[in-house]
TrEMBL record, chains A, B:
This is ArsR family transcriptional regulator. Keywords: DNA-binding, Transcription, Transcription regulation. GO terms for molecular function: sequence-specific DNA binding. GO terms for biological process: response to amino acid. InterPro entries: AsnC-type_HTH_dom, Dimeric_a/b-barrel, Tscrpt_reg_AsnC-like, Tscrpt_reg_AsnC/Lrp_C, WH-like_DNA-bd_sf, WH_DNA-bd_sf. It comes from Actinokineospora fastidiosa. PROSITE patterns: HTH_ASNC_2 (PS50956). Residues 5-75 form the HTH asnC-type domain. One of its GO terms (cellular component) is cytosol. The keyword Magnesium does not apply. It comes from the Bacteria. It holds the Pfam family HTH_AsnC-type.
Length: 152, 152
DNA sequence: GCGTGCGCGCAATAATCTTGCGTGCCCAAG
DNA sequence: CTTGGGCACGCAAGATTATTGCGCGCACGC
């Protein structure tokens, strides 16, 4: 782990989470460092695991998103384990959270349309082991879709 | 809009959504094209808006994630508009969806800890205009966090 | 059969990334 | 107060990667 992140680190990480397509020189201008200094900081983020990877973001409005709230039948560790494995195997599962509260899991499905959604919900959720019940909320408008996380 | 995406386009987009850090040559090897052909296809995705941007992904386990289900007080267009503006102004709002069903919105908050979460929930949700009620589910384990969307 | 358009590979050029090196700063030990 | 080590920086050379002009071949429609 790096000791602590300074102000430049936070600014850099915010910029990278917003748009990592920038050149090292552009980033350097924005935070007041040389390209190589920026480079070395980014290397450090990667080494420490703070920065996982870079991804391209596809326009989400071309897809059908659905938020599913899932409750399991039993609370045994084994029941959770098999459920997780089952759901994780599906590529349509965009996000998958274990949560506190009335439900056990939140699953966000990304499909190409209602036909695909039905098929996927059937296969991934309805057929999941230890499922008690679930409800689905369809996304009418994906107002904001980021993975941005605060760094301080 | 491009006429239609062929099989190579789909493979390319899947690879880019998974990891856009690869070189054009590496992508070319994976899909069977020259670097410049890959380049031109990616340019097209960008021009047509299919590809929005590239982002760096920060390890989500270093943050506190919370899924909030929100119901508004009134259903008037004006009520929705002001609520959206209010919520969108907060940087802690990682994702923001208008959904069908019992609730109106799903908001995913990313904060640096419980203190930050409380402050944020107070400011962003509780003080939001036209709020009727909301519930919060804390993320115990972010099993999968992507923005991957199917392209076919 | 014959143009036309489109996407491809190749190759030269431009841009960006990468890395070794020397410098200055800060902190801790003497 | 001085000295030495560690660390991050900027600079610049070299390597890698991205960009773009060019000519070719294939498919489609006339």
């Amino acid at each position: 782990m790096p000791k602590t992140l300074d102000d430049i680190d936070h600014r850099l990480l915010a910029l990278l989470q917003q748009d990592s397509g920038r050149t090292l020189a552009a980033l350097g201008d924005l935070v007041g460092l040389s390209p190589s200094a920026v480079q070395r900081r980014i290397d450090r983020y990667r080494e420490t695991g703070l920065l996982r990877r870079e991804i391209a973001v596809v326009d989400p409005s071309s897809a059908l998103l659905a938020v599913c709230l899932v409750t399991l039948d039993r609370e045994s560790p084994e029941s959770h384990r098999s459920f997780r494995e089952w759901v994780q195997a599906a590529p349509e599962v965009q996000q998958f959270y274990n949560v506190s509260g009335d439900h056990d899991y939140v699953v966000i499905l990304a499909t190409s349309g209602m036909a695909h959604h039905r098929e996927t919900a059937e296969r991934v959720i309805k057929n999941a082991p230890n499922l008690r019940r679930y409800s689905t909320m369809f996304v009418l408008d994906p107002i904001r879709t980021t993975l941005t996380v605060p760094t301080r």
